[in-house]
Design goal:
By secondary structure, the chain is mainly beta. It is built from no helices and 13 strands. The protein has strands at residues 2-3, 14-15, 29-33, 36-43, 52-55, 60-63, 75-79, 88-94, 106-109, 118-121, 128-129, 135-141, 149-161. The strands form 2 sheets. A 5-stranded mixed beta barrel has the order 4-6-5-7-8. A 5-stranded antiparallel sheet has the order 9-13-12-10-11, with no helix packed on it. It starts with a strand and ends with a strand.
């Protein structure tokens, strides 16, 4: 990943080859905003809004599950907007003091999540929970859930499979 400025990060939109003559950054470039750091990716399949995604070395992102989490160190992001297959855009990857109460950065969490508990992958694509085996490091949900919900997130570093 390279980092060289904010790139005018707009994490609320996606880009296609038909609606853009040039992209704001190259794949896996890191940009920043007051909400944290973001990585520019291409969707490898449809991605739901607020879904946790795995980010491959080639810049492809797919909704994260326990099955596709792979090995330790895999970079994880959270889509703040829905992506169609092959669309490009920014996904939140946390960072020091990324997200936080009132920042609007959210992730999909399963029912009965306990606020500020560790987040883990689940069998449900894009959804994290506090009851599983593959930890997503450096991130927590800031509120409890009774039913499945999108919850504001906070981080202390770049999210990764641990």
């Amino acid at each position: 990943m390279s980092q060289s400025g904010s790139f005018g990060v707009n994490y609320k939109t996606t880009f296609t080859t038909t609606n853009n003559l040039s992209f704001p950054a190259s794949l896996r470039a890191v940009g920043s905003s007051p909400e944290g750091e973001f990585v520019f990716v291409q969707a490898d399949g449809a991605i739901d809004q607020y879904a946790f995604v795995k980010i491959e070395q080639d810049g492809q992102a797919a909704m994260l599950t326990t099955t596709n989490a792979g090995s330790q160190g895999l970079l994880v992001g959270v889509a703040q907007v829905a992506f169609a297959d092959n669309e490009y855009g920014w996904v939140w990857v946390g960072g020091l003091n990324g997200g936080g109460v009132g920042k609007g950065i959210k992730g999909k969490l399963a029912a009965s999540y306990v606020a500020k508990a560790n987040l883990n992958t689940t069998a449900t694509a894009g959804v994290a929970d506090d009851a599983s085996t593959t930890k997503i490091a450096y991130v927590v949900g800031l509120a409890a859930t009774t039913g499945a919900a999108a919850v504001e997130l906070g981080s202390v570093a770049h999210l990764k499979v641990n």
